[in-house]
Amino acid sequence: MKKLVLSLFIWMFIAVSAQAQDRTLTGNVKGDDGLPLPGVTVKFKGAPGGTMTSPDGKYSVKVPSGSTSVEFSYLGFVSQIIPLGSLSVINVTLIPDSKLLSEVVVTAFGLQRNRNQVAYAAQSLDGTAVSENRSPNLGSSLSGKVSGLEIRQNNTMGGSTNIVIRGIKSMTQDNQAMFVVDGVPVANTNLNTSGQQTGIGGYDYGNPASDINPDDVENITVLKGAAASALYGSRGSNGVILITTKKGKSGLNITFNTGLGYAVVDKSTFPKYQKKYGGGYGPFYGTDESNYLVNNIDVNGDGIPDLVTPLTEDASYGQKFDPNLMVYQWDSFDPTSPNFGKAKPWVAGANDPSTFFEKPLSNNQSIMLSNSYDKGSFKLGYNRDYQKGILPNSHIEKNTFNFGSTFKITDKLTAGADVNYSNVNGLGRYGTGYNGNGVNNPMTNFRQWWQNNVDVQDQKAAYFRLKNLSKTEARYVGKENVSWNRKAFNNPVAAYWDNPYFSRYENYETDSRDRYLGNVNLNYKATDWLNLMGRYSLDTYKQVQEERQAIGSLDVPFYSKYFVDYKESNIDFLATADKDISKDLNFKALLGANIRRQRTQSIYQTTNGGLSLPGIYTLNNSVSAMEPAVEFDLKREVQGIFAGATFAYQNTYTIDATIRRDASSTLPKGNNVYFYPSVSAGFVFSQLLKEEKWLSFGKLRANYAEVGSDAPIYSLVDTYNLATPFDGRPQASIPQLKTPFDAIKNNPNLKPERSKSKEIGLEASFLSNRLGIDFTYYHTKTVDQILPVKVSVATGYTAKYLNAGSVVNQGIELSLNGTPFKTSDFEWRINLNWTRNRNKVTDLFKDDSGNQSTNLAIANFQGGVSVNATLDQPYGTIRGRNFVYNAAGQKVIGANGRYLQSATSNEVIGNMNPEWIGGISNSFKYKNLSLSFLIDIRKGGSVFSLDQYYGLSSGMYEETAGLNELGKESRLPISEGGGFINPGVREDGSPNTVRVPNDEYGSYGYRRLPAAAFVYDASYVKLREVVIGYGLPQSLVRKMGPIKGVDLSLIGRNLWIIHKNLPNADPEDGISFGNVQGYQLGSYPSIRNFAFNLKVKF
Questions:
Q1: Are 753 and 782 in contact (CB under 8 A)?
Q2: pLDDT tens by residue, 310-336
Q3: Considering the entire predicted model, what is its pTM?
Q4: Where this protein primarily resides, as one coarse class (predicted)?
């Protein structure tokens, strides 16, 4: 039925557009270099209808009755209008527009500026940059394509993407880039579970910017510096990503996309398990034959002790595998198992945890209809994206509707509206962090603590066997958690780890988000040089997150529900002027006002003391009376006025200045009004060198700007949580940890953070725009940081908000583009983006005694490490226990052959910031066949791996059971040539020669090594994207009736990590969205995505 309705809908529009037509007009369009121009708009003056040129520059279109002329237009070229007369063939050569030369740049508030008059760094991308790779996440599609943009993708299904422009500026506030869609600010707040950012478990619910439909994007402009984004006030302090969506075009246009995707795990980002030794902590059981196995239990009743796996021990430093050795294992004690009461050969599990992952299929469909006519235009689009995860019982479905329209009320007054609706439903999103039993995140089990004799598929069979039995026999209800890690042979309760399939099918989350994003606007052309615009925009979403833990889990069963209702409205007024004062002098000005209102209402409630009935997930199923619900009502209003002026002389010299005044409700009276000035200058030197044919364009630019950000909501006055009433009287407490405020005392005297930024740049292109360069140097200092400074716990608080501290970011951005080879049939284009940012904490707060603080811990993690703001160091230093080094920089080893460790656990052992990031893209086109690929590079930076910290200790990994320098197995006794020698020197400088044993858990891991041993270089080189496309020849398409074009494509994403230094994991993967990076635990493997897509244009 749905297909029938859709078909009728499409053909209805086709029928409407079919009009009386006189003849067919054909021809070709080329540039002044003689090469064909694809995508040139061909439309008729005074009549509907039109088309676009094909990849080979050809067109064919029906001429509507009443039309007298045809217009050919293409961005960056001078349009041509040609009388039709009786012509049936028109061939056109378009000449580059000397005023544009390359492109129009979209700037703040969606205003378009000639490139000559833009005096700050702004980089633009065509919409295909985020749509042709068929990724559902627009943010991740920008990786490697824009200089200055650092993007970190999490490997969770539908997970969040961290997007930072020009480094971390604020130590504790938001550093994410601002998204603006058609002038509407888009909320991109962190919706993840509160503990998730500090690695203690929870779910990654993604960030709301992922709701944007990539197929609806016409182009993207990234405003990188403060001068470019100052007009947005505090919202623009972290840079702005401007998205312009598609608009209605001449003639009825229908584009349909359908695609199918397939995903597999990248095995280089998951552990390789040793197959030599089984479960156990070490040789603790007293006999040569079974020193590693329990040997004092008579299982079969024959009076002779049997060999039993150390069921409670979640490591693989146990007995060496021997198929002749018969051992009772976890399923020997499961009455429903075929192996019940049987000993099995002592061998490695046939299916290790790498077989836990599924190979999911995904699919995507979209349709876009658009049209324009004398009085206006419209577009209507729909997109459906379905992703299935690599984990069992996981998927996300997203449905997006887009509508946009403009209508010319009078010759001077035009009304417009854009509405976007999206619905996202998730099931079984991936748990993150370390929760100790794999309830939410089975990767902590598979990467850190596991017995290599366990076959993970046997765990699957056990779960489903008990699940099916529980449907018919009540005695099995709540007993489905058959864990390999029993407390004892006669006690089936899990000791440390639940059955991973039980966790995925019983302890899962569900979530849904409904979002509306849109605006209505009026534009009034007062004169030929003055335009007035009024706009009301709204971004609102409602999200429900439900989390559950089943009866039978190791931890206390629960059900929780979190509801958040977010609304942001903006009222904008903007007057713009664009007037030529004289032949040589152009003046542009703007004057505007903005009122922004935000409100976030949320409520969280959870059961208490467990669940009464299994399988019933409601709050009413709580065993004990629930604590009062945690509710928040967060409000912010910012009122801003702004102005700007630009003078351009001979399209060569440009001076631009802006100023904005904001008043924020989150700051105290007297400090709540603040100003943002900017001034920019540009010099297009190519205008003075027109006789130099090798130089197509050249511009120098420089600017200075100040921006700032207000305080967090409710940081002026103290807040309290209501507790359970005592003796009929209400109780309240200071918020602790699980709320957004921690135990921080607020401050009524706060003032805004401020960033002072300056930049200089060079843009140039050569050889008829065949080679281009864009170079920028920037320096930004952010002062008056709003920091939580420690106070005495006697106050009832742990910290207090103060204005203190500063951070400096300075760096270089370089973009190169070239067309090394171009003929009528073949073209090769290459783009390179490179960024080097240096970040430094230049000031912190002073304590009560007036002493300068040297460190602020941002987050403390398991493993004895923390992420910090350290004075005179980059923001994001990793601190922990270190090796001891001698003066020559060699690691020092004690008399026992083990490494000496630093006296404190607070040494700097890493830094989360990369040395540089870059991307190289190549695209090749031969006739209708195209190939493009992107290589994404990160050099330097550090990551601490808790997976390696524990995984090496537990003996699961191959490197813990390899050969030593003698060619002997390292787990053999030292007397038989086993063990290993730690590389390093003794305290006297002599080489270490002491051999140490490798016969029990911890020999390689955290028990013997400092945290610094598990800090790795986070560099990588990735083949991020490959797209192969083919467009059917127009000679064939013309025979397909209403079809105008057919494009086929094969897509690959994240296909190959060409180089990395972090073992067993993807160095890009993190734990959350936000300022805290450089820490991994329970990391998910990288996913290789393959897809096929069909695009049909009507």
A1: yes
A2: 999 999 999 999 999 999 999 999 999
A3: 0.87
A4: membrane
